[in-house]
Structures are given as structure tokens and as C-alpha cells.
Amino acid sequence: MKKISFLIAAHNEEKIISKTLDNLLAIPYKNYEVLVGLDGCTDNTLEIVKEYSKKSKKFKYFVLNLRNGKTEVINFLITKTKGEIIIINDADWIFNVGDKNNFEELIKLFDNKEIGGVAESFPITYPLHKHSKLLEAGMTIQNKLWMEYIKSFATKFDDKWIVLDKNKFPLLVNIFRKKLFV
After folding, report:
1. Which one, of 124, 67, 90, lies nearest residue 13 by Cα?
2. Which of 36, 56, 77, 182 is the most buried (most CB within 10 A)?
3. What pLDDT is attached to residue 26?
4. Which of 22-31, 48-57, 61-70, 116-125 has the highest mean pLDDT?
């Protein structure tokens, strides 16, 4: 069973981080970790994340104060992961896995050694924002444009568009092999 690492960059997320972490705590997969990079939080985000790390050894957090943005936090967190597969999960995302079989089917794609990453694999929702319908409509349009763009770098595999190691994909996808980063 492949080890999965969920990475979250967080800055002042006290209003939403609990829902996201509850969601990840319920992922129907045994071998995973959740790493949270706390980037200059001035609210109660640190205390909330600490409580989750007490609830489960799956949760680890790092107080960074980099304040150079999400990319810097994610780059740092990747160096701390134990997972073979990385999943970038924003602090305000609910990762809709569906059921255990759906998630395991996604992870089994990585049994093919040529597959380097998967983009837009699960629906992401923003239930905690007052403008969630507008955000989700915007994401639908963005995802359609993104998928059209990604097809120029990806390979079709079992009716899914997959980024292969040999593609030298220029942009980060949301689920990928750690070895592609390092």
C-alpha cells in the first residue's frame, strides 16, 4: 500500500481548517499523513492544528513564518513527507473521495510506473465560503480550460488524462509522485 502525503499551506485559517482536517481524518485509506505548513498565522490556526496532531499521528505541523506564499510552504513540506504520492490540499478544500474503492482506484493508477501525476481527480468544493456557488462555477470554467491545456502535455489512459514522467510537465498537478519533485 503506497504512502500518501496530503500537504496544506495555511495562513490564518481558523474559521475553516477544522472542516478540512475532519474531512482528511475520514479519508478511507490507512497509509497516509497530513502535513500542515503554518505560514505566519496570527489567529488560532496553530492551536486548532495542534489539537488534530494530538488526535491522530497522521497529522504533523510546521510553524514556518516564511510569508512567501503557498508555493514556498509546499516546497518545504515536500521535503518533510514520507509519502510516495503527494496530494496538494488547500486549507479551504473538502476532498470528496466518495468511497474507499474510488480512492484506491486513483492510487492504483500509480502502479503504472510511467504515471507521474493526475490532475483534477476529485471534485473540490468550497462549502465554507459565503460565495461558494460563484467560486464553484468559476472553478468549473477554470477546470474546463485547464483540462484543455493539460491535454497538450498529458496522455490518455483508461479514459483519464494522466501526466507521465516522460512528459516533463511544466506545471504542478494536484496529485503526483514525490520523485518528480525531488
Report:
1. 90
2. 36
3. 92
4. 48-57
Question: Do the Cβ atoms of 134 and 29 come closer than 8 Å?
Answer: no
Residue 85 backbone dihedrals phi, psi, to 5 degrees: -115, 130
pLDDT in tens, 114-171: 777 776 544 555 555 566 666 666 666 666 666 666 666 666 656 665 555 444 444 4
Nearest to 140 by CA among 151, 159, 127, 125: 125
Cell 513527507 sits at which residue? 81
DSSP string, the chain: ---EEEEEEESS-TTTHHHHHHHHHT-S-SSEEEEEEE-S--SSHHHHHHHHHHH-TTEEEEE----S-HHHHHHHHHHH---SEEEE--TT-EE---SHHHHHHHHHGGGSTTEEEESS-S-EE-TTSTTHHHHHHHHHHHHHHHHHHHTTT-EEETTEEEEEGGG--SS--SEEEHHHH-
Strand partners, 60: 35
**Cell numbers that stand for 88 in this block:** 496538494
- Whether domain 4-181 has CATH 3.40.50.10490: the reply is no
Q: Is this model's pTM higher than 0.85 or not?
A: no
